[in-house]
Amino acid sequence: MATYTLISSQVLGSSAASVTFSSIPSTYNDLKLVVSARGDSSSATGLIQMYLNNDSGTNYSFTYILGNSSAASSTRYSSITVNNSISFDEATSTTSTFGSSEIYIPNYNSTSSKPFFNINVTENNSSAADSADIKAVASLYSGTSGISSITLLTASNNFVANSSFYLYGIKNS
């Protein structure tokens, strides 16, 4: 049976451009990051950029499947400098809605490439076709060190107060 242990949590009391989990212990098998975030940009949805180990080299790849109220699509990115596959609600989304994401990183201590996945949901009470979506993402981080830090930031704005970030360590016991 898997045991989840909260490693660290951050609930923002005011706006912040980034959130970092550093000194992640190597005592777990897997990591799970749970995010509930909203931004202050003047759009409906935005993307969170995720850096592992502060690595901004071309070590990230991902493929996503996206569905919204009118269509489904998929896209592939390879050899990019950041994993920016995590969606969240922005200032023009329905008031007080926060995008929800779960990122699961198995075998995060591996010294070889690390596959991981995330599920994202955004919502908006708009009639626009892209007003709300759900996205499933398969990712690969090609760094060869175990993951000891995770940084999340937005491209051109801030996370608003009450955005929350929870990092769990998972042990197989």
Question: In terms of topology, how is this protein built?
Answer:
Blueprint: E1 2-11, E2 18-21, E3 30-37, E4 45-52, E5 60-68, E6 72-80, E7 83-89, E8 99-106, E9 114-122, E10 133-141, E11 150-154, E12 164-172
Antiparallel strand pairs: 1-12, 2-11, 3-8, 3-12, 4-7, 4-11, 5-6, 5-10, 8-9, 9-10
Give a structural overview.
This protein has an eight-stranded antiparallel beta sheet with strand order 1-12-3-8-9-10-5-6, with no helix packed on it. It has a four-stranded antiparallel beta sheet with strand order 2-11-4-7, with no helix packed on it. 0% of the residues lie in helices and 55% in strands. The protein is mostly beta strands and 173 residues long. It is globular.
Can you give keywords for this protein?
single chain, 173 residues, mainly beta, Jelly Rolls, eight-stranded antiparallel β-sheet, four-stranded antiparallel β-sheet
